[in-house]
Amino acid sequence: MIIYTTEVQDINSFSRLESLKEVYGILWVLVPILTLVLGITIGVLVIVWLEREISAGIQQRIGPEYAGPLGVLQAIADGTKLLFKENFLPSRGNIRLFSIGPSISFISILVSYSVIPFGYNFILADLNIGVFLWIAISSIAPVGLLMSGYGSNNKYSFLGGLRAAAQSISYEIPLTLCVLSISLLSNSLSTVDIVDSQSKYGFWGWNLWRQPIGFIVFLISSLAECERLPFDLPEAEEELVAGYQTEYSGIRFGLFYVASYLNLLVSSLFVTILYLDGWNTPTPYIFVSELFEINKACGVFGTTIGIFITLAKTYFFLFISITTRWTLPRLRMDQLLNLGWKFLLPISLGNLLLTTSSQLLSL
């Protein structure tokens, strides 16, 4: 059998082409993920800058103004400082748990963004159980906090980790019951279907008006899940130094810092999706149907409009959360648990029963 040189060259060029196609395919899969991570990073930087400016305005003082125009680069400067700062390890602590804890908290919250629709067909993974996936993944974050407190071999850190776990368990149940009520109204657990079910009647079709009690409970529970004032008991400086973060420094402390803002952003996004009709405008499409075809017909332009509407609603609730932090005093731990178990849990359960009854009567 004789193989000519030209045939060998053709075979080699074909194999190179196939390998290039595989590489391009892998890169094309990574592009949406990297785009989402880049957008989330920019969003966190904006939130940090907004919190400093809003808190400065509330306290009648000057906020960041030297690092870049209006101080917009201050968050980047702080992140760079934490990145190059020395990491200290507790000499008698569990180094594995101490190192893994921040990563678990950060990654569990980051994965939650995969089921968030920012616009029409602008979602990383449209799953049939999208909202429950968010609840399941976000419930892993307190495990990382508990591991961090235990691995530090510090009684203050360990007590802060225990408080974080107790607080998360107390407020995840009312939050889950509120999500169940929304799922019953929408007949779906998909985040995209929940948004679509609200768009028919525009502003008056929002779940905010159909579930006002659930909206208030969800908002309070999401603040407690994010450990924001008045619910930041796991890291109350007056009692516990810095809670589970006491022994951390450098990039590990930075992961906790970023994770708290990631959790705040994802909670505000879910408030927008579950109660404020996501990317849709408040105009009912039964009257002006042409406006609702813009997302499908205009491609990039319609997607951009949807992202803008989603972020506008989200940052409105971020403003409420930031203002709440710098306005209300901190609760005690017993008041925190009493609010969750004795008030929010019965109210959310009653709201779920009323929603179930109304759905059964409407059949």
UniProtKB/TrEMBL annotation:
Which EC class is this protein assigned?
Answer: translocase
Record key words, sorted: Cell membrane, Membrane, NAD, Plastid, Quinone, Translocase, Transmembrane, Transmembrane helix, Ubiquinone
The membrane-spanning stretches of this chain are 26-50, 95-116, 122-148, 255-276, 300-322, 343-361
* Entry superkingdom: Eukaryota
> GO terms for biological process?
aerobic respiration
Q: Which Pfam families match?
A: NADHdh
Q: What Gene Ontology molecular function terms does this protein carry?
A: NADH dehydrogenase activity; oxidoreductase activity, acting on NAD(P)H, quinone or similar compound as acceptor; quinone binding
Please indicate if the UniProt record lists Plastid as a keyword. yes
Q: By its UniProt entry, which InterPro entries does this protein fall under?
A: NADH_UbQ_OxRdtase_su1/FPO, NADH_UbQ_OxRdtase_su1_CS
Q: Which GO terms describe its cellular component?
A: plasma membrane
Location within or outside the cell: Cell membrane; Membrane
User: What does the subunit comment say?
Assistant: NDH-1 is composed of 14 different subunits. Subunits NuoA, H, J, K, L, M, N constitute the membrane sector of the complex.
According to its UniProt entry, the function of this protein is described as: NDH-1 shuttles electrons from NADH, via FMN and iron-sulfur (Fe-S) centers, to quinones in the respiratory chain. The immediate electron acceptor for the enzyme in this species is believed to be ubiquinone. Couples the redox reaction to proton translocation (for every two electrons transferred, four hydrogen ions are translocated across the cytoplasmic membrane), and thus conserves the redox energy in a proton gradient. This subunit may bind ubiquinone.
Q: Which family does it belong to?
A: Belongs to the complex I subunit 1 family.
Protein name per UniProt: NADH-quinone oxidoreductase subunit H
- Record the organism: Talbotiella gentii
